[in-house]
Amino acid sequence: MALATVFSRAQTGLDAPAVAVEVDLAGGLPALAIVGLPETEVKESKDRVRAAIVNSGYQFPTRRITVNLAPADLPKEGGRFDLAIALGILAASGQIPAERLAQYEFLGELSLSGALRRVRGALPAALAATNAGRRLVVPEANGPEAALASADAAHAATHLSDVTTSLAGDETLWKTPVPALGPSDQPEADLADVRGQHQAKRALEIAAAGGHSLLLIGPPGAGKTMLASRLPGLLPEMTSEQAMQVAAVASISAGGFKPEDWGRRPFRAPHHTASGVALVGGGSTPRPGEITLAHNGVLFLDELPEFDRRVLEVLREPLESGHIVISRAARQAEFPAAFQLIAAMNPCPCGYFGDASGRCHCTPERIDRYRSRISGPLLDRIDMHLNVAAVSRDVLMGGAGEQPAESSAAVRTRAVAARAEAMRRGHTSNAALRPAEIDDHCPLEKGARTLLEQAIARLGLSARAYHRILRVARTIADLAGADRIAPAHVAEAIGFRQLDRTASI
Q1: 86 near 52, Cβ under 8 Å?
Q2: Contacts 24+ apart (CB under 8 A), 147-152
């Protein structure tokens, strides 16, 4: 019977469901039909596969060929099934041994010469194949990411003939790829490069220690972007599980996974013209957006009021839940989105409100309209708001009285120690404390409770703002090595809610 089955993997969000590629050769006029809900890219594979088989030195069967991609109700897209279809045709026609195909799964796009081209989603497919007890065969370009699944999770090949020869018994032509070794030695931006801005540096330290979101408000040239770019260097090293999640997200993205980025926290800074779909993900086939690409890392939104208001509002739910569900008429996909938000904005449309030079001529109405582009509910979800003043000339030019700035490594040591306290209480960070857990983990001294009550009355804080102040105060107490939250910790946490104070005036 001229029938062969080859195993492969589709891609749905971060999942890689199994696909059985069934190939049948029957009598009749020569033809090649692909069924099983294929997209246009899959339908076009018939021409790539025919040319690849012939140019690899094999015979293309002059029979009626039916290729079934099962299950039939799962959409199939991309060129990822090219290799599996070609091997199925060769096995059904008796040109390669069909019995060895059951041990492997195959993923790869074919060029007309038979060379293998990389595909998206090799790492999720390798993880799924390992769980199924099979090894994944991928293009050489996908080898390092597929090898992250386990030591013997994958084989990598450069050409269709390498795969067929290896299946025939000569396994020297495909290789066991080496997994990514870790971040490159390229130096990261150091906090010591930022002159002055001691309060902003303190805010970054607290944000890194507790996983808090931060909004920087200041004139152009104050160093907001420079400060934000240094936050990833203050965060603790990712666990192997977190690094695997980040690598899996990169694997399914358009840019693909880069071995030199293994273990490096992502830093995403989309332009303010980005759409809502670009930010949270979407499309007819759901793809990850910027918030997912920033998973376990930092999402930096510069010029926050310049973003479309409807675009910013989509951040509300992911900031609370840490994931995003993309629903379309025919498909649904869930993506992780546990990112740390840091944003920057000017104090007014011209950017110089409050500047000593007096160059700002913005009216109060223009300033209010500018700031109202950011909704109150979104501001409520940002843990800290901080005004960043322009750096004085003496500080900028390194005056004699200026003390040497701390390096990122020194600040990171304290942030890691504070995170360890949160881990001891059973949480990855203080920002992850649920409202029901705050009373247990945020005990207040008597003076601290009185101060917080006064702040709620004077500033008109919402329940969400109250909880966020307590979370920030808990982090400040952890940095100070204190079990209970003191009045000084609460006072500093309230000091980082500067837009709440402005709204209450």
Answers
A1: yes
A2: 147/176, 147/177, 147/178, 147/179, 147/180, 148/123, 148/179, 148/180, 148/244, 148/247, 148/262, 149/123, 152/176
- Residue entry with tokens 């069909």: 98
CATH code of residue 12: 3.30.230.10
For 405, which DSSP code? P
pLDDT band for position 184 (50/70/90)? low
Note the helical H segments in 322-407. Answer: 364-371, 376-380, 393-396
- H helix intervals, 211-349: 224-228, 240-252, 276-280, 290-293, 309-313, 316-321
Of the listed ranges 37-46, 123-132, 328-337, 447-456, the one predicted with least confidence: 328-337
Which tokens sit at 101?
A: 């195909």
Range of the domain at 41: 3-173
Do 163 and 203 fall into the same domain?
no
Under a CB-based contact definition with an 8 Å cutoff, are residues 123 and 101 in contact? no
Residue at 366: amino acid letter: R
Where helices occur in 364-462 by DSSP H, the ranges are 364-371, 376-380, 393-396, 408-424, 435-441, 446-459
Radius of gyration of the chain (CA): 28
SS3 call for 385:
strand
pTM of the complete model: 0.90
Average pLDDT over residues 6-23: 95
Q: Are residues 112 and 258 in the same domain?
A: no
Distance CA 49, CA 52 (A): 5
- Same domain membership, residue 389 and residue 438: no
Is residue 198 predicted with pLDDT exceeding 80? yes
Tokens of 405: 């700035």
Order the strands of the 18-26 sheet from edge to edge.
Answer: 31-35, 64-70, 18-26, 3-9, 104-106, 135-139, 154-157
pLDDT of residue 505: 43
